[in-house]
Amino acid sequence: MKLLTKLRSFYEQSKRVWFITRKPTPQEFRIVALVSAAGIAIIGLLGFALYSIWQIFGFFR
Description:
The protein has 2 helices and no strands. The chain has 61 residues and is mainly alpha-helical. The chain has a domain at 24-61. The radius of gyration is 22 Å and the shape is elongated.
């Protein structure tokens, strides 16, 4: 019975969120895509830099 109550509550909250969402404008989508791409690039470059430093100084040997 408790599981059924939790599922019903989750359904009601999900339904509320679904009704207030909207499709992003092309400009909003472009901004989100650019920010996401920049974040991925920064994390990738940071990882590459750290890996290169560890290879140069031999931390994993």
